[in-house]
Amino acid sequence: MLTFIAILLPTLLGFLIISILLRHEVETPLGERIALSFPLGSVIITLQIFLLGFMRIPLTLFNTAFPVAIEIIALASWMFWQKIPLVPISPEPGRSLRCELTSFQIHWAKKLLMAGLLIWITAKLISVFVMTGLRPIYSWDAWAEWTAGAKVFFYSHSLLLDAPAQDFFGQSAVHRIIYYPLHNPLLQLWISLWDGTFNEISVKFFSPVYLLSLAVCFYYFAAREMNRIAALMMLIIFLSSPLMSYHATELNCDVVLGTYLLLVAVSFLKSIRGNRPYWTLTGIFATEALFIKEQAFLFVLPLILSATIYLKFNMDKTHARIAMRSFFIPFLAILPWYFFIFYYGLGFEALHDYGYSVMTEIFGDDPNRINTYFTFHPEILTGYLYWFVSLNNFNVILFFFPVLLVMQMRFSKESLHLLLPIACYMLSFIFLYMFTMFFSWFMWGVIFFRNTLTFYPVLCLLTVLLIKNIQQSKATSPLECSNGMKR
Amino acid sequence: MHWDFQHIFMYPPISGSTINSVFLSPEFRIIEYALIASILIIGTIYFTLKSEKFPDALRKAVITAFFTSGMFYAIYADTGWSQWMVTDVKHYWGLSTEEKLEKMDGDIYKFAMQAKNKISDDYQIYTTNEYMYYRIQYYLLPLIKRNHAPYLVVIDDDEALYDANKRVLTRGQTVIPDVEPVCVFAKNAYVLKRR
Fold first, then answer.
1. Nearest CA-CA partner of B186 in B165, B166, B157, B159
2. In a 3-state reduction of DSSP, which class is residue A99?
3. Which residues share a beta bridge with B170?
4. Which spans in chain B are helix H?
5. Are the C-beta atoms of residues B63 and B57 closer than 8 Å to each other?
6. For residue A481, what pLDDT is reported?
7. Distance between CA atoms of A399 and A384, rounded to whole angstroms?
8. Is A364 left (phi over 0), alpha (psi -120 to 50) or beta?
9. What are the CA-CA distances from residue A292 to residues A181, A252, A286, B125 (Å)?
10. What are phi and psi of A139, to 5 degrees?
11. How far apart are CA A481 and CA A469, in angstroms?
């Protein structure tokens, strides 16, 4: 029950913020707003906890929950005063899935098919929650790198900053990597504070919640671009990735980062399509992605470039300036974290014990040279080609994505703007493994799948767009795509 | 390659490497490729005969192949996922968290919990088993591992030798005198304390 409250509070916080941001907007239905809420609210809470810890305020339940309670009360009061509705008025109530399932105008066979697909999806999502509750934390990275940190924070009620910088967060406890952002362990801490104890199962429950958010947001996006049945099938294909499903029951950050990158992509797309409040949400989710895993900046930097180019050439100056402000202001929230890690020298070059022991074998007494040692291994491209066609782990998405890309007759402007950050993100891994000593990670054999897991949701989103573009390629419409196909 | 239906749909159990990649049976991969190829060829012919231009027929066939093969793969993957869930329900349903940890890690967990009851300060750890080196640290949290700590945790260490008569722990060139046992779980799992 208390774990449920720990999950509910960030959802509530996020929901109130979204209701305020989207108060003049009617496109986003209630279900999608709820799905956006937990990802939005959870990072706000963990960033606050980080600030509390940085200020040496004990990380107790009262100290961490009190600011959240004040924020919720303040936001709810302001919404009440401004008469902002909690439930948006849907512009086309007849287009919801529930309406289609109960409509007499739709053939029974189609309704039966939709119901069957919906049952399959629901069963899959429920099974992920069940699996989460069955096993304690099991995977190496989860317990050694993330939960170890969460445990020391919980028992010490602090971030253990009263130590030399290299011993912050518990002296690289177990396998903790010191420069990893703190969202994951602090969210575990938040749940544990509510539980009153550190339970190896309760702390995992934010993971399937992220998958649920991801699935719902992906579905709503696909349902806008395709017919209902195709959207449901797309969601089944998306959720069927066994690697993603398993990760959603554990405490690694790959699916979590994938969720935020998808939310950034969806928000960016909506912004480009004229839904202006989404510029703020794009900035918020991009900021929050940076507090999940450090590699998020490989997506966020090209996103900033893409957004800037779009605003400069597609909007009048006044509106572009407003949109820019909305987009960039949220990034201020991550500055304390970056100030902290660079001030104390905890950037990417701060290797932990294990990293030092591995890199010392290669570089002798200066293992940090990994960051400046360049090499050339073009053979990894063969590896990438193989993994793309191998059908491993990600259904047929990786196999068909290049095919669908090649089959585009024309790329819409929005596709191009979205392709830029995704392509840069994917290529940055290739660069890393081809030109630096991180090639040794690629030779390990499985890093490709872990990296891919972070952009797999966005790749699925792009697949939806590509399929829609192909279907519409006969039409003589202008560059910008209209919404959805025939229902 | 062993072609029988059971093997084609065989799904590996969850293991420590599942977090990095899930095995895909080569037989299923071949069936999936065959399915994609068949739909592409048949679909292109079908749509071309329906008076579509060849490029448009090919595009439609690609989309049809995508959804068909994707759903077929989803049936396979989710069948395997269901097997995992059934196995985990059999193993873990109804157990407390501690019982689940004991089931997962067996003696490592039991030893760690006994050691945790006895250790009240920082500790050193000696083992030649990498998994145990990190797992014991994890179970002993919030106790901290450091050099020259008052407690010595020895588990599955091929190089360590404790002489109970002389109260000396020897590990290669390292000799630690004057240490007494505070917890003896097994011959190769014990905790010593410096006097």
1. B157
2. helix
3. B161, B175
4. 5-8, 26-49, 54-92, 97-105, 107-118, 130-140
5. no
6. 35
7. 11
8. left
9. 6, 10, 10, 32
10. -80, 145
11. 8
pLDDT grade, residue A177 (50/70/90)?
Answer: confident
H or E stretch at A426: helix A413-435
Compute the distance between CA of residue B103 and CA of residue A340 in angstroms, rounded to an integer.
41
Order the strands of the B174-176 sheet from edge to edge.
B160-163, B168-171, B174-176
> Is a pLDDT exceeding 50 seen at residue A478?
no
Check A138 against B138: CB less than 8 A apart. no
What is the pLDDT at residue A171? 67
Residue of chain A with shortest Cα separation from B137: A174
Quick one: tokens of A111? Answer: 């309704």
Chain A residue nearest residue B11, CA to CA: A242
The first and second tokens of residue A270, run together, are 């909506």
3-state class (DSSP) for residue A28: coil
Q: Which of A364-368, B51-55, B177-181 has the highest mean pLDDT?
A: B177-181
With contact defined as beta carbons under 8 Å apart, do B125 and B153 qualify?
yes
Nearest alpha carbon to residue A179 among A44, A343, A310, A332: A343
Q: B137 in contact with A at a CB cutoff of 8 Å?
A: yes
Q: Token pair of B123, please?
A: 């500790």
Residue type at B145 in one-letter notation: K
pLDDT at residue A480 in the model:
33
Cα separation values, B159 from A400, B124, B133, Å: 53, 15, 14
Burial A178-212 (b: 16+ CB within 10 A, else e): bebbbbbbbbbbbbbbbbeebbbbbbbbbbbbbbb
Tens digit of each residue's pLDDT (9 = 90 or more) over A200-259: 999 999 999 999 999 999 999 999 999 999 999 999 999 999 999 999 999 999 999 999
Closest Cα in chain A, distance from residue B161 (Å)? 25
Which token pair is B111? 């030893």
Task: Classify A333 as helix, strand or coil.
Answer: helix
Among candidates A156, A243, A391 on the partner chain, residue whose Cβ is nearest the Cβ of B21: A243
- Residue (of A295, A283, A379, A290) closest to A338 by Cα position: A290
Element (H, E) at A313: helix A297-314
Residues shown for chain B: 195
Question: Does A428 reach chain B within 8 Å, measured CB to CB?
Answer: no
Question: Is residue B195 predicted with pLDDT exceeding 60?
Answer: yes
Residues comprising chain A, all counted: 487
| CB–CB contact A246 B18 (8 Å) | yes
